[in-house]
Amino acid sequence: MLVAFCSKFIVNSISNVIASGTISTTFISLILFLIVRNAAKYIIAVTVACKDKISLVINVTIKSSI
Hints:
3 helices
């Protein structure tokens, strides 16, 4: 539910940013693509960290960085 709310907020904000003309549509698209692509890794890292499995968190984080 929180993800849906945040997604709607981001989508509605994009039109205002593009209308202001300070940032191009291509730039915003690339940034959002990278964030969404890595969102699953971030969620896994946080979930596993809550379960005190630090070695798995480090493994996910290092692989994400590479």
